[in-house]
């Protein structure tokens, strides 16, 4: 267990502490996953924890220019309750309000959800559909990267040891655009979704002008269902198009059977159901009937 | 070491933090604020909820250092001390009045989460409560009362009025005290965090223990090296089987369970103990245990009863792998099936289940100066703990003193013991107090489970629905050790034809040893499993015959004059028909014109389909089967004028203490406050017998009542002589004894008795009516409780998701003793039944426990709780205390089949295994066959 607990007040200070402490130090945000991994021996022992939740920049949630900035250290309950998030990123509000329980959401952060790199993380799936870009800080400076670039494999983040997430940049909503999120859980066991789906779309008359779909777990890492997006883009979400989109999604997805959780067959079945539901809901929200 | 300063309940503290310490550790073990509980240490159960800077957080996964500079609020601060008066917070007051605290272990967390909710939202709707308290688990299932209490408290905080009390009708047989709602005596301690559970105790010089477990399901221990553990700084003692001073085995009925497995001996399940360690801290003890090297020669794992019964299976015990073949014979089933117009047969399976009481097992053993051993523990059978601990030490039983503590739930899972023995052995070895606290994983792995079963039912009936024969074959996985397996599977078998009068019954049950965790007592005691099978079958039969499922049950229901499968003629207190009728009437009232058992799509959401399902059940009260069923109670008039009832029976949260209090008060003629109850102490309370088989209300209730009666009679006759008043002119009053015109107050009565050299104390042993062993006919049990339930479900046919919307539950309890506590038992029973049906699945694979964390073993949370409509049916037992009989188990038995029957009615999928796998509900029914099972068996 850790012997040193560091509480930086700026991103730069945190990066410096990480660099100085070396591999024996890890970042802790909400810690709701990390603490369990440490207590249950799944995480290699650490000497130092660097607590980033007191860095004001990471706790910001505001409009900056023509983007919505959600700090990586904002607790999920704040994300879920934020009028800004509900206005510009409904899928994210829906996802974060369902994650874990209330007390966990008071400390768990969106950054943690992304950095933990699980292939079906609700927050990450919503961010992906919302076209969020992550701001990453490293000793060499800052960069903004598409969310999908943050993943190497299940539970393996592309973030390097000396890097950290600062926050997420989301495009502001515009006329005739909306998003939706839905997940299905299994009432027994592991508190991970069997499948979740987030959709963002923009309408143009009775057609979908633009659409982004994210499904988790879609494969080893979160990524968008681009084949289904292509089918839907430019068309009305009628039965035939939705059928074709589901087919495209199933062709592209790499669903697998998770023991004790869900079979591949069930996931394939649900993928179609959730796609129809979320597209339908986003379409309605975007101003249709 | 880092130093932090935090403010806790208004007081600043500066502390040096140890590596890995959490906020919960700081509060409990540094500051002694033990109202904050640790139920799982994995952020799942919510028992550790506190507020940090006004926000509810889980303190068990909150690094202590993060609290530096912050302000923490715990349960201890909610009540205010004002001018020598202790004023409860409205939430605490409402929890007390609504019976929202049962075992009480989750209560501080529930209240703190609710407190945070009300800070943000003073006028919450029920859905807000469900949302915020989603992860505050209550294994007693007190959710409906918790919700009502929070709403009442919110009202109080908004208006300044006291929280509105619940409206709970009195019993039809209410006396002055009995049969009227009463607040449980321990409620205030539980809502304020003052109640002491075992892990809350601290003794000077106390050591902490840890157990090195096999973690291998089957093998021979070849070598055990404890040298590294011994060498670790802070380790005081390491014991192996070679160090055992006396008994080598323990067991609640059969001594077949090694206290420690020795070198060369057989390991039979993953939880077998190989060595025990005592050290200065828990962390050191755990580290030492992990340093113990065991070389185990693995053997093939007998993973289920059929494998264990195979001719070439190695015998796990000298007696072989068949613990018991249990037989029930009534009439001639072949004749019955020949007379039947319809015969159906189907096989059902149920998995293991865990009690998942929120308080993990904890024991503290304390050697005393006079050479005795005190063991502080929450146990369902204190005197049996004493016997087993004494046997392990090689001492006479009187040298061991079991001191019962407030228990955070039991449900049958705290009948078997092991930790008590291990703690006592280490305390004996070291001469110091030793605490052994299981963590959640250890608890899930080590203690006995509900039996996994496979049950084949063959049922025959006439065209009009009259049952002609029921034949069942049951396989029960009793795991590595006997525990209560034989008794549990006997109950499963004797109840396997359902609560029906069937002329021809044949049941065969095989309770089989395997390499799975042992299986033993769990609320329902085997009947949960066989009731699921037979009640599913009854619905299949109703459909085949084209009969209403309620009518089919009504036609066959046990009633006065019926003969049970074991040949017992029921003479009184058979309220089953009334239970069936009243649930039926309520369901039809709620459904209006619609057939409750027909599928109803939700308007506007046609993919969601609703339907009701029905099930009935019975469950014995008391040990029965010829076992002597005795309880001894002592009642004393104390000098301060209060009567004290003393009995070792266990209060697990179910409300026994208030039952005993009310029964004694009614018998004596005083108010409830005139009686206090002391339980679970082998020095100070006589033996009330095990707290199992729903027996305590009846057996201990009768013992307390009779002791009270004899004491009153002694007071009257003694004082009649002293004051020269005829005994028939002496009457007990709440304030004292009325001798003719003169009132002698209770303290004066006590003083008079002492002055006359007469102890105002009576000890009475109650012997329950004699019962007959299985196979001999006659009364196998002295009473049965009955129930009928209907569940309304909504199935999302697209995703398979199931939601239970409403449950109507009628229970024949004999007569209600404390309607407030009874409501809690009834609602909690339904909640637990919902877990059995929908959320709980204890998975063991090749002897290894997959569901070894609460995150993987999900008990029902707020979101699964439906509207529960309780109906109390009272058919008094003439021999019961004021007509009462047991209720603890029956309340949860029929819930699972009511739910699966409802699912069938909604979507046409017959589920023949528990729990419900929602994936199975998305499959479209096959053409021409409405009926098929999730296991793939087509009926």
Please describe what this structure looks like.
The complex is a heterodimer of chains A (about 290) and B (about 950). With about 290 residues, chain A is of the alpha+beta class. Chain A folds into three domains: about 5-50, Uridine Diphospho-n-acetylenolpyruvylglucosamine Reductase, domain 2 (2-Layer Sandwich), CATH 3.30.43.10; about 55-170, 2-Layer Sandwich (Uridine Diphospho-n-acetylenolpyruvylglucosamine Reductase, domain 3), CATH 3.30.465.10; about 175-285, CO dehydrogenase flavoprotein, C-terminal domain (Enolase-like, domain 1, 2-Layer Sandwich), CATH 3.30.390. Helix content of chain A is about 35%, strand content about 25%. Chain A has eleven helices and 14 strands. In chain A, the strands form four sheets. A five-stranded antiparallel sheet of chain A has the order 4-5-10-6-7. In chain A, strands 11-12-13-14 form a four-stranded antiparallel sheet, sandwiched between helices. In chain A, helix 5 runs antiparallel to helix 8 (about 120-130), helix 9 runs antiparallel to helix 10 (about 240-250) and helix 10 (about 240-250) crosses helix 11 (about 265-285). The model of chain A has no long low-confidence stretch (mean pLDDT about 95). In chain B, the strands form ten sheets. In chain B, strands 10-14-8-21-18-19-20 form a seven-stranded mixed sheet. Chain B has a five-stranded mixed sheet with strand order 2-1-5-3-4, covered by helices on one side. Chain B contains 22 helices and 38 strands. Chain B folds into five domains: about 5-75, Roll (Ubiquitin-like (UB roll)), CATH 3.10.20.30; about 80-200, DNA polymerase, domain 1 (Orthogonal Bundle); about 200-300 and about 360-410 and about 415-445, Aldehyde Oxidoreductase, domain 3 (Alpha-Beta Complex), CATH 3.90.1170; about 450-625 and about 775-930, Aldehyde oxidase/xanthine dehydrogenase, molybdopterin binding domain (Aldehyde Oxidoreductase, domain 4), CATH 3.30.365.10; about 630-765, Aldehyde Oxidoreductase, domain 4 (2-Layer Sandwich), CATH 3.30.365.10. Classes of the chains: A alpha+beta (about 290), B alpha+beta (about 950). The interface between A and B is large, with 39 and 51 residues.
């Amino acid at each position: 267990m850790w012997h040193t607990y560091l509480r930086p007040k700026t991103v730069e200070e945190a990066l410096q502490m990480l660099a100085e402490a070396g591999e024996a130090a890890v970042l802790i945000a909400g810690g709701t996953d990390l603490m369990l991994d440490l207590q249950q021996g799944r995480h290699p022992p650490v000497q130092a924890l660097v607590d980033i939740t007191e860095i004001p920049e990471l706790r910001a949630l505001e409009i900056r220019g023509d983007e919505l900035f959600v700090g990586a250290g904002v607790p999920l309950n704040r994300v879920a309750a934020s009028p800004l998030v509900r206005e510009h990123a409904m899928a994210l509000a829906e996802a974060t309000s369902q994650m874990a329980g209330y007390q966990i959401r008071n400390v768990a952060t969106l950054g943690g959800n992304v950095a933990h790199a699980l292939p079906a993380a609700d927050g990450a799936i919503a961010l992906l559909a919302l076209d969020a870009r992550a701001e990453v800080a490293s000793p060499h400076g800052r960069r903004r990267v598409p969310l999908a670039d943050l993943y190497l494999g299940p539970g393996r983040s592309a973030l390097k040891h000396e890097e950290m997430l600062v926050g997420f940049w989301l495009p502001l909503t515009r006329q005739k655009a909306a998003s939706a999120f839905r997940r299905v859980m299994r009432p027994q066991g592991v508190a991970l979704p069997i499948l979740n789906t987030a959709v963002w779309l923009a309408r143009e008359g009775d057609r979908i002008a633009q659409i982004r779909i994210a499904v988790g777990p879609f494969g080893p890492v979160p990524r968008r269902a681009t084949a289904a997006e292509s089918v839907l883009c430019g068309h009305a979400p009628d039965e035939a198009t939705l059928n074709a989109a589901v087919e495209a999604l199933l062709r592209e997805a790499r669903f697998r059977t998770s023991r004790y959780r869900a079979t591949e067959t069930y996931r394939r079945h649900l993928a179609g159901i959730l796609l129809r539901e979320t597209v339908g809901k986003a379409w309605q929200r975007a101003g249709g009937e | 070491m880092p130093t932090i300063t935090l403010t806790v309940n208004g007081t600043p503290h500066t502390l040096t933090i140890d590596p890995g310490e959490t906020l919960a550790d700081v509060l409990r073990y540094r500051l002694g604020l033990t109202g904050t509980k640790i139920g799982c240490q994995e952020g799942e159960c919510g028992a550790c909820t506190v507020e940090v800077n006004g926000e509810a957080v889980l303190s068990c996964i909150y690094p202590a250092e993060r609290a530096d500079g912050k302000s923490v609020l715990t349960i201890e601060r909610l009540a205010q001390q004002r001018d020598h008066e202790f004023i409860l917070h409205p939430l605490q007051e409402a929890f007390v009045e609504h019976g929202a605290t049962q075992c009480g272990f989750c209560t501080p967390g529930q209240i703190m989460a609710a407190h945070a909710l009300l800070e943000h939202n003073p006028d919450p709707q029920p859905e807000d409560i469900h949302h915020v308290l989603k992860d505050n688990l209550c294994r007693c299932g007190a959710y409906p009362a918790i919700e009502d209490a929070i709403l009442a408290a919110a009202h109080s905080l908004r208006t300044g009025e006291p929280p509105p009390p619940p409206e709970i009708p009195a019993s039809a047989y209410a006396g002055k005290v009995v049969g009227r709602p009463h607040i449980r005596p321990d409620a205030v301690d539980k809502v304020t965090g003052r109640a002491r559970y075992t892990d809350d105790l601290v003794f000077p010089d106390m050591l902490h223990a840890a157990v090195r477990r096999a973690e291998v399901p089957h093998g021979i221990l070849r070598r055990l090296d404890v040298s590294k553990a011994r060498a670790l700084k802070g380790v005081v003692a390491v014991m192996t089987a070679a160090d055992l001073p006396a008994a080598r085995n323990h067991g609640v009925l059969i001594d077949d369970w090694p206290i420690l497995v020795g070198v060369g001996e057989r390991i039979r399940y993953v939880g077998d103990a190989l060595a025990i360690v005592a050290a200065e801290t828990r962390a050191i003890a755990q580290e030492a245990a992990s340093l113990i090297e065991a070389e185990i020669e693995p053997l093939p794992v007998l993973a289920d009863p059929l494998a264990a019964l195979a001719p070439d299976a190695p015998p796990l015990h000298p007696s072989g792998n068949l613990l018991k073949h249990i037989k029930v014979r009534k009439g001639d089933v072949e004749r019955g099936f020949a007379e039947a117009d319809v015969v159906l047969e189907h096989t059902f399976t149920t998995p293991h289940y865990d009690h998942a009481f929120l308080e993990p097992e904890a024991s503290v053993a304390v050697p005393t100066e006079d050479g005795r051993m005190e063991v502080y523990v929450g146990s369902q059978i204190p005197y049996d703990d004493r016997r087993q601990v004494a046997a392990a030490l090689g001492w006479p039983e009187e040298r061991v003193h079991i001191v019962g503590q407030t228990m955070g739930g039991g449900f049958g899972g705290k009948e078997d013991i092991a930790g008590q023995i291990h703690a006592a052995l280490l305390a004996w070895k070291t001469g110091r107090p030793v605490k052994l606290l299981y963590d959640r994983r250890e608890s899930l792995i080590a203690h006995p489970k509900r039996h996994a079963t496979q049950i084949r039912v063959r049922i025959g009936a006439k065209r009009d629905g009259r049952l002609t024969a029921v034949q069942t074959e049951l396989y029960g996985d009793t795991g590595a050790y006997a525990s209560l397996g034989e008794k549990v599977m006997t109950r499963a078998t004797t109840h396997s034809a359902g609560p029906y009068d069937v002329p021809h019954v044949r049941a065969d049950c095989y309770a089989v040893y395997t390499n799975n965790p042992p299986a033993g007592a769990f609320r329902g005691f085997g009947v949960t499993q066989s009731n699921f099978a037979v009640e599913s079958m009854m619905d299949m039969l109703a459909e085949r015959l084209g009969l209403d499922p309620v009518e089919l049950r009504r036609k066959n229901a046990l009633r006065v004059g019926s003969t049970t499968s074991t040949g017992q003629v029921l003479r009184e207190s058979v309220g089953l028909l009334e239970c069936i009728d009243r649930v039926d009437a309520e369901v039809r009232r709620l459904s209006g014109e619609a057939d409750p058992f027909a599928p109803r799509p939700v308007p506007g959401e046609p993919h969601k389909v609703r339907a009701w399902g029905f099930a009935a059940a019975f469950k014995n009260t008391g040990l029965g089967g010829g076992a002597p069923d005795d309880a001894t109670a002592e009642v004393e008039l104390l000098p301060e004028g209060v009567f004290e009832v003393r009995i070792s029976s266990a209060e697990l949260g179910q409300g026994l203490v208030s039952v005993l209090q009310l029964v004694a008060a009614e018998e004596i003629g005083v108010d409830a406050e005139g009686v206090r109850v002391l339980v679970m102490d082998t020095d100070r309370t006589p033996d009330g017998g095990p707290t199992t088989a729903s027996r305590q209300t009846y057996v201990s209730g009768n013992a307390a009542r009779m002791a009270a009666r004899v004491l009153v009679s002694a007071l009257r006759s003694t004082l009649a002589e002293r004051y020269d008043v005829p005994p028939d002119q002496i009457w007990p009053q709440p304030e004292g004894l009325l001798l003719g015109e003169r009132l002698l107050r209770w303290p004066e009565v006590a003083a008079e008795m002492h002055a006359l050299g007469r102890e105002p104390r009576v000890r009475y042993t109650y012997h329950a009516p004699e019962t007959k062993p299985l196979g001999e006919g006659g009364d196998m049990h002295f009473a049965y409780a009955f129930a009928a339930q209907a569940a309304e479900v909504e199935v999302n046919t697209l995703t398979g998701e199931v939601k239970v919307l409403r449950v109507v539950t009628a229970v024949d309890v004999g007569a209600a003793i404390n309607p407030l506590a009874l409501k809690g038992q009834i609602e909690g029973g339904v909640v637990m039944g919902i877990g059995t049906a929908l959320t709980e699945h204890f998975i063991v694979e090749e002897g290894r426990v997959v569901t070894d964390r609460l995150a993987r073993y999900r008990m029902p949370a707020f979101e699964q709780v439906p509207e529960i409509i309780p109906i109390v049916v009272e058919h008094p037992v003439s021999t019961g205390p004021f007509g009462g009989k047991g209720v603890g188990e029956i309340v949860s038995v029929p819930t699972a089949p009511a739910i699966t029957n409802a699912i069938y009615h909604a979507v046409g999928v017959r589920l023949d295994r528990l729990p419900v796998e929602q994936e199975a509900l998305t499959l479209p029914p096959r053409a021409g066959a409405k009926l098929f099972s999730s296991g793939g068996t087509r009926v």
